[in-house]
Amino acid sequence: MVTATGVGSYPGEDMHEALRVVLGELPGDRHGLPHLPELPARGAVAGMTGRALAVVAELGADLQPAGWRLTGGGGGVDQRRARSLLAQDLDALEEQTQGWSGTFKLQVAGPWTLAATVERPRGDKVLADVGARRELAQALAEGLGEHVADVRRRLGGLERMVVQVDEPALAAVLAGQVPTASGFHRHRSVDLPEAAAALEWVLEAVGEQGAEPWVHSCAAGLPVGLLRGAGARGISVDLAQLTAAEHDAVAEMIESGATVALGVLPAVDPPVGPTDTQLTESVLRWLDMVGLDPAEVADRLVLTPACGMAGASPAWVRQALTLLRTAAGHLSG
């Protein structure tokens, strides 16, 4: 059966309310995959990078005017706030999932997106230093394993867990398109073997905790083959961003037995939203274009918004999740 889920971020600052929306619209039934929301409106400590730095093991970080920076020692007050906020959110999740059972999804920024956004202690991005980016990836892998184990303990009705590793910067890292601190130059591209190795550490840490690792990016140029080789058991993409070759690569991945989450709905309020029938027909057209039988791939197909919904209105969030879940039901026959 086809399922529906959110990508990660939502508007607002109230985690209890966000969880009520997610668990209400994606209740973990036959067509809904609930997940832990991210609420970046609460500040940098709750954004994608801050959230990941709350998870990493041993590495200290603090918040500077230019963004997050590793400290080379103990973490600063902002990293402690990020960790405290994550713990509070997990408490809220545990409270609201009493009596719940099913599959649940977590999200965390991946090693290359972190390397492209976090600075070294002496300045410029971690991406500029081979040793620093290796250390950051390994710290993320270690901390993520502990995080997954913690969530598993908290969710008494958990039957299956998915961990979505967000890599919106991966394509830019591989193409040498990430700007240096000055903005006048670009960081050198990362070789494919090194890129794969860092992802493997993180995805293996997820798998070692009995969870299913996915990789997500709503940016163009997601290297599907690299992700498959690194151990991704699912990918999440914006359907509108795919090139002809990428359509084929995504189709090959789902044929291989992996899960594919397709971003098929606007992440922000559209002038006129599609109906569930129109959404269903658009997915069927894509399946026909790539030569896939809906009945054969339904169990490995997930519908999502095109990207995170932090910029959407609360009303559109609810409507979008309802549309996705309804379309997933139609596609499941």
Keywords:
12 helices; 333 residues; 7-stranded parallel sheet; alpha/beta; two-stranded antiparallel sheet; globular; 45% helix; 9 strands
SSE blueprint and pairings:
Elements: E1 3-4, H1 15-25, H2 48-55, E2 61-64, E3 67-70, H3 77-96, E4 102-109, H4 111-117, H5 130-154, E5 158-166, H6 170-175, H7 192-208, E6 212-217, H8 224-230, E7 234-238, H9 244-255, E8 259-265, H10 276-289, H11 294-297, E9 301-305, H12 314-331
Parallel strand pairs: 1-9, 4-5, 5-6, 6-7, 7-8, 8-9
Antiparallel strand pairs: 2-3
Helix pairs in contact: 1-3, 2-3, 4-5, 5-7, 7-8, 10-12
Describe this structure in words.
It is a single chain. The chain has 333 residues and is α/β, with parallel strands linked by helices. It has a domain at 45-100 and 108-158 and 167-210 and 221-232. It has helices at 15-25, 48-55, 77-96, 111-117, 130-154, 170-175, 192-208, 224-230, 244-255, 276-289, 294-297, 314-331; strands spanning 3-4, 61-64, 67-70, 102-109, 158-166, 212-217, 234-238, 259-265, 301-305. The strands form 2 sheets. Strands 1-9-8-7-6-5-4 form a 7-stranded parallel beta sheet. A two-stranded antiparallel ribbon has the order 2-3. It is globular and about 55 Å long. The protein starts with a strand and ends with a helix. The model has no long low-confidence stretch (mean pLDDT 95).
